[in-house]
Amino acid sequence: MTEPDSALRIHVKGVVQGVGFRPFVYGLAARHRVKGWVLNSTSGVVMEVEGAPSALNLFCRDLAELSPPLSRIEEVERQPIPANGHLRFDIRESEAEAGYVLISPDIATCETCRKELFDPGDRRYRYPFINCTNCGPRFTIIEDVPYDRPLTTMAPFTMCPDCRSEYDDPLNRRFHAQPNACPVCGPRAWLAPSSAGEEDALTAPEGDPASSGMIEACAHMLRSGKIIALKGLGGFHLACDATNPQAVERLRERKGRFAKPFAVMMASLDVVRQHGETTAPEEEALIRPSCPIVLISRSPGSTVAREVAPGNRYLGVMLPYTPLHHLLLNDVGGPLVMTSGNLSEEPIAGTNKEAWDRLRGIADGFLFHNREIYARYDDGVWFIPSVPGEYGEAVPAPQPIRRSRGDAPFPLKLPFASRELLACGPELKNTFCLTRDRYAFLSQHIGDMENIETIEHFETSVRTYEQLFRLRPAALVHDMHPDYLSTRYAEQRASRETLPLLGVQHHHAHAVSCMIDNGTTEPVIAVTMDGTGYGLDGRMWGGEWLIADAGGFRRAASLEYLPLPGGDAGIRHPGRTAFAYLHWLLGPGFPLPAALQLEEPEKRVLARQVDRGVNISWTSSCGRLFDVVTALAGGCLHASYEAQGAIEMEMLSRDAAESYPYGLRLTGQSLNWGETGCLPACSRFHEVALAPLLRSVLRDVREGRSLGDIGSKFHRSIARMAGEVSRRIAEETGLTRVTLSGGCFQNRLLLKLTVEELRKHHLRPLLHRQVPANDGGISLGQAAIGHFALK
Ligand SMILES: [Zn+2]
Ligand SMILES: [Zn+2]
After folding, report:
1. Nearest ligand atom owner, CA of 131
2. 8, 22, 267, 353: least buried by Cβ within 10 Å?
3. b/e string for 553-576 if b means 16 or more Cβ within 10 A?
């Protein structure tokens, strides 16, 4: 006696496309003898299954429990339907409907493909574009959903019979692997010297690409100190031998990047261990499918040239994530510098022509290929904080410094269902954020919105996201700074499309991004130690204690305002800022350290500026205070990138108990913004007075103490301030959770010490774990604030 058949329609939402989900369903159907069909739709995977009720139950159980490793199921809808009498189980053509699907980010070459790549008997031996359903390009090649070959940049390549049969076979590892290809039918790479004519250089040569020896030739150039522009997954890299100081120096000069560290690619974890002292969580981060750059401690015996990361105790390291990288690293035999293919400040180059035009003055040769990059991605950068995780976890959670390839556009989960909004992000380290339902689609790193190329990258990326995720923002959110180009974009678009518009304070956005990162919308004490952001009073904030939730905030404390000469331009000259701070706090005639190297006329001009308040920005920035103390103690006077001085000091500092004195003043009322009804009252405003600190720093400089000694005490001082002021706010408000956000908390020593100080006062620190503490995380906070404020 058999049971009568029943049937279900099942809709699976989440990351279910491009991860081998349909062949998985096909296999399950065969195992449990159920009939019907499955297809990709624009809103996920849809299937109809029919069979004995007991078989359907087992099918549904396995669907949830055994899903492919790269998939992530967010929601399963099941609906009983009448049985249709299907005779087989089919994989049907994809279907477009209203809705959206979560797309998988790009995934590093899997172990199985890597073995085939180096197997002389395999038909893809040394083929630089080998991939399968478990690995390969995704988001960088998708033009639209559903994720199917015709809507990717693989469309121009017609599969050969061998590839086609793999692609059509539900039991094959390459079943519906959209970028499936081989040397016969797929994309090809070629090497062009910079001296070639443009047409020759940009045209793919005929012949078998794998046997042409171009990877070997490229490896030879790299070994002999040449610089190669290399087309990767999300854009071009500039590569050179990381153990050759002259090659690295030449790359710095030609790229116009003089001090900022370069990332290094190493062939395997074994090689990484020869150059760095890695911890278990760092190794886990290195081998994630996203294959990010991870900051690790450099070992003293490493042969990587010092010029790669001057004065830095860390190395930014990543493993090869495309077959082309594997081949090249294998043939070169040593670590390679891999830095974004751009001139400083420009976005990463994406097309062959663009790279040829922009990088010819830098690279000696180009390793091109003819698979187009649809969306450009820089490499992601992560670090593992050296503090124990929360809730007594033994393993600290990794934190991103740059969230990009391999992570974006994988959405973050919101602790509320959001309206459809676009948050346009800040000026520096821009990302934007689109929200819908419980998802926040935080973009990849866009860059510093200071030139036309980056603005275009921003606008193109916004359009791509809105198209792919079928989003139409109902309101726009931007930073309060009136001059940011992201603010202008928001204003112009809002007026064009008659959309509501909201300006959000920079540090409030930092605070809320850290709250969302920790899955909470309940009020917190938000310590934000940052560069600068536009404040409610028009001054440049940046050392802030807020009482905040997503609806509003009270500014409960800050570092005192000090004069930043020449406004934002002054950021490049910490020595001048140091003079201005001292002149303001200690008056004329204080003993100026010789290290500042200021001439009399320059000092007179600066003193006059400060006395008259002309061409001065008043700032409570913690980042600037770091710069100033570094300059006073004999460190960096002319910064070629943001926070250069602070990083220099961090690298020489250590965990010390000693600290500098500072004052705490009560000065009137807190400043409020937004809906503050849910926030505990706070009648007092604390201001941290810095004259005692700077006076003590000057004394230590006079006594000849080193930058490392002074830096160690200074780090502890900032951490103590963060702890003590938070405790006072906690006593008045009853709040106990403290978010730590802002660019300064990328400083690992400061982060560790601050966590220690907060715990001394029985306060619970909340750290970033999915979005950066720096401005790269701001758009997430903006979006959440927008949702509550515009309700
Ligand atoms: Zn693979
Ligand atoms: Zn083929």
Report:
1. 1
2. 353
3. bbbbbbbbbbbbbbeeebbbbbbb
